[in-house]
Amino acid sequence: MTTSTERSYTKMPLTKAVFPVAGLGTRFLPATKAQPKEMLPVVDKPLIQYAVEEAYEAGIRHMIFVTGRSKRAIEDHFDTAYELENELEVAGKSALLSLIREVQPADMLCSYVRQPRALGLGHAVLCAEKLVGDEPFAVLLADDLMLGPDDGKGILSQMADLYNQTHQSILAVQEVPTEQVHRYGIVSGSVTSDGHTQVQRIVEKPRAEQTDSRLAVAGRYILSPKVFGLIQGMGRGALGEIQLTDGISELLKFEGVTAYRYEGKRFDCGSKLGFLQATVELALKHKEVAPEFADYLKQLNF
Fold first, then answer.
1. Where are the beta strands (DSSP E) in the chain?
2. In Å, how far are 5, 103, 108, 272 from 46, measured between CA atoms?
3. pLDDT (tens digit, 9 = 90+) per residue, 200-259?
4. Is residue 205 a contact partner of residue 238, using CB atoms and an 8 Å limit?
5. Tens digit of pLDDT for each residue in 46-91?
6. Alpha-carbon dihedral sign for residues 176, 180, 185, 186
């Protein structure tokens, strides 16, 4: 049965995004001992800024960060740096001044809430419930640096377009090798006439023999607010954590969920290899360093 509240949010525009950034970043120690992993730079921008820019491009203006201890640098990054701006203005460095001010455009609102204990992604998302309210919302994992096609729309913009057509929760997915399915939430379902997948089942980190699907959820979601109540009523799942995947699995009993094969590329910057790959590929696209960096790579002997 659909309630009046459910009917109201299905037609609401997507205006809020949640960024779970409370993780410890242990795979990058000692670099992350005193700084958030989300502030590690890929060329000249921290990981979290790439994710925020992707959300902004999709029309989202309210950014909600679920933080933890030692994450103050993220708040500072999206705050006004009066002393720095004054120094740049006095020095006549207008280009750098504009660059700094573009980090948080005037029409962008940033809110912060603490995740007091590391109880999993589902719990992190639940911490944002009061800030999200009864509205659809996006979830972006900054560890996954995701780029749309060259001169094309970003991943979340693609998903927002689909959401505006279907008004269903949307999961970004990609096919992974069979030996990697245990690393991801895996979805299965029926293929629709437009080539997407209507999700019928989602399992967190299954063993290869537990599923025939290789469709893995990437770090981008658009979710209905109904998922909050479902997460709240769950116990701990895989790895002893409150899993967002389990909340989405419950959501399937009440609402449709679409798996979207995005156009573009994902870098797993939660791993050293993925972070290095992202750094090299984005450096080769960067207007300031690309030519010289490409020449340098050509000179290396492997």
1. 16-20, 41-42, 45-46, 62-67, 109-114, 137-140, 144-147, 169-175, 185-191, 197-204, 215-223, 257-261, 265-268
2. 38, 11, 18, 15
3. 999 888 888 888 888 999 999 999 999 999 998 776 666 667 889 999 999 999 999 999
4. yes
5. 999 999 999 999 999 999 999 988 889 999 999 988 899 999 999 9
6. positive
